[in-house]
# Entry
Amino acid sequence: MLPKLVLLFCLIAASAHAITMKEAPKGMYIFSSGFLSATNQAVTSAGTAISNANCDGVRWKLRWSDVEATPDTYTWQYLDNAVALAAANNKKCGISINAGKDCPAWLYAARVTDARSAASRCGSSTGPLWNAAAGRLSRRGDPANSI
# Structure
């Protein structure tokens, strides 16, 4: 009996400290065709599906190397156009910025003096690129947009 009470107490204590998670997207989402770029604009990437009434949102894909070709200089034109297209069609949107093989060349060419600093830039959901992207969407003031 005592082990069951201890387990019950632990479960109650754990639930009191549970973190409220953002609700997962629901409905039907389209994934953009390829990565947004100068040659693959949002209209082409989403196709006609973005205007479909049964489509709830779209997921846009970008390469880090297309967004930040030089350190701390961001090109958001393609994402801005994509978010505007989603908003014009009353769709929610999310973004994926690929790192790994899609990291900019300057990242590999730079001499790494602080491994943690380099790691925080590549593939982290808390690094400068991610923070810049999140800020970009939040400044639009549209609650329908999510990351």
In short: The CA atoms of residues 125 and 131 lie 8 Å apart.
